[in-house]
């Protein structure tokens, strides 16, 4: 048990160090030796946990997805589905603001993996997107059942619309340099989703 906990602690320390290294040097220029030096361990130790820097980066992404998911999951306890939607969007945007450098790095290396690695990466994205969509579907279904949103459009289609607005907001934020204030766009986004562009 102690050995397992020690191994997990080493792995987390390596991932923390790698996040700093990737942020400082970029993915292409970073080396496993740089990660080892940042973590304060021998290069061989890093290879005991990860076979290459691509695997390190995928592990960072998986850990990040899990952190975001857990933070959003907390808000699923809210009774009002509209407030649940708002709180979840605020939480996701706040997380992105806190970890903007990592997100920028992820976007910038989209073409950096070979085909086999891209398939693994795609599988990871599909799996995590499915989890987020399941939460979104549940919230939208609850809101529709309570008569808070229109029911003449399927929950699946509404989720596509909400996801599209969210993605567009995030990528606009990235294109404009990840300036502070993304989390402040959560409520206007949800208002637009609920009410459209029609003047009140």
UniProtKB/TrEMBL annotation:
InterPro entries: Homeodomain-like_sf (IPR009057), HTH-type_TetR-like_transc_reg (IPR050109), HTH_TetR (IPR001647), Tet_transcr_reg_TetR-rel_C_sf (IPR036271). Residues 8-68 form the HTH tetR-type domain. It comes from the Bacteria. Residues 31-50 bind DNA. Pfam families: TetR_N. Keywords: DNA-binding. PANTHER family: HTH-TYPE TRANSCRIPTIONAL REGULATOR PKSA, HTH-TYPE TRANSCRIPTIONAL REGULATOR RUTR. This is TetR/AcrR family transcriptional regulator.
């Amino acid at each position: 048990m102690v050995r397992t906990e020690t191994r997990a602690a080493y792995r987390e320390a390596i991932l923390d160090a790698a996040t700093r290294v990737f942020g400082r040097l970029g993915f292409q220029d970073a080396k496993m030796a740089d990660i080892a030096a940042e973590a304060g361990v021998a290069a061989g130790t890093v290879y005991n946990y990860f076979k290459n820097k691509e695997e390190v980066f995928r592990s960072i992404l998986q850990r990040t997805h899990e952190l975001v998911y857990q933070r959003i999951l907390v808000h699923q306890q809210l009774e009002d589905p509209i407030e649940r939607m708002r709180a979840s969007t605020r939480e996701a945007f706040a997380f992105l603001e806190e970890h903007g450098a990592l997100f920028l790095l992820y976007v910038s290396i989209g073409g950096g993996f070979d085909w086999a690695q891209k398939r693994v990466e795609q599988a990871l994205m599909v799996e995590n997107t499915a989890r987020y969509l399941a939460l979104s579907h549940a919230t939208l279904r609850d809101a529709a059942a309570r008569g808070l949103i229109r029911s003449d459009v399927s929950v699946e289609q509404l989720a596509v619309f909400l996801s599209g607005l969210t993605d567009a907001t995030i990528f606009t934020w990235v294109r404009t340099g990840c300036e502070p204030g993304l989390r402040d766009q959560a409520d206007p986004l949800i208002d637009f989703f609920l009410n459209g562009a029609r003047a009140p």
